[in-house]
Design a protein that fits this description.
Helix content: 55-70%
Structural class: alpha+beta
Largest sheet: 5 strands, antiparallel
Order of helices and strands: HEEHHHHEEEH
Distance between the termini: 179 Å
Length: about 250
């Protein structure tokens, strides 16, 4: 299929618009990153630099883009990057990390990562440099560790709650059984109350008769004692007064 000149122009314009839209999207995405991002071509010329890279180097976009890395303020502020870049190129390293201490308003430790970029044939096409404050990395790592510890504690707490719930269920079953036994015992006690009441009534009559018999016996005994005392007294008087009769 052969395109007319007009169709080819439309196709090229559309492609350029799509590329520009993609470039704008990439630029916007890079600008939102907190980490420093710098992209070099195979000649070590800066082609891409986000806002964090400009802030770290203390440069404007015009002062950084299109310049060899060695000629930029970023290289002057972080000279270890140049030696690290040479190691990556010379030794064909896929990735290299270097920790750099710089002063930007305050002393900061920066971890730079240099990664080689290659095409589908394995030919080096450039270098991607990104950096992040070590303190931020450590904070993130500590946060992750804290979250993992909290998750472990939560799992342990859930296991304890499950065990406690099982114990409570077992106790509840035991209480139900005990309650049933108490109800049965209560019913048995109620069934014994009526016979006991009847027995008590039956025992009441003989008991009263026994009390009455005891009272009469005590009365007769008391009378006999009184008579005996009178006779004993009379006999004693006669013995002492034998001439007295009556």
């Amino acid at each position: 299929m052969v395109l007319t000149e007009e169709a080819a122009t439309v196709y090229v314009d559309k492609t350029l618009q799509e590329l520009e839209s993609l470039r704008t999207f990439q630029t916007s995405l890079l600008s939102t990153l907190r980490q420093t991002v710098v992209l070099l071509d195979d000649s070590e010329v800066v082609r891409v630099a986000n806002d964090a890279a400009l802030a770290l180097s203390g440069s404007s976009r015009e002062e950084l883009l299109g310049k060899k890395l060695q000629d930029t303020a970023l290289a002057r502020r972080c000279p270890d990057i140049l030696s690290s870049l040479q190691r990556v190129i010379t030794n064909s390293l896929e990735q290299l990390q270097v920790r750099v201490r710089i002063e930007v308003d305050a002393e900061r430790d920066i971890m730079f990562t240099l990664r080689s970029l290659t095409n589908s044939e394995g030919i080096r096409t450039g270098t991607l440099i990104y950096a992040e404050e070590v303190s931020a990395q450590e904070k993130l790592r500590n946060t992750i560790e804290e979250l993992e510890a909290a998750a472990e504690e939560l799992r342990s707490a859930n296991e304890e709650l499950d065990a406690t719930n099982k114990e409570l269920q077992s106790i509840n079953e035991e209480l139900k059984t005990t309650n049933k036994e108490l109800l049965t015992t209560n019913e048995q006690l109620h069934s014994l109350v009526e016979p006991l009441e009847i027995t008590n009534d039956e025992l009441g009559m003989p008991t009263r008769e026994v009390h009455e018999s005891d009272r009469r016996y005590a009365h007769r005994t008391a009378e006999k004692k009184t008579v005996a005392k009178k006779r004993l007294g009379k006999n004693n008087y006669i013995e002492k007064n034998p001439h007295h009769r009556g």
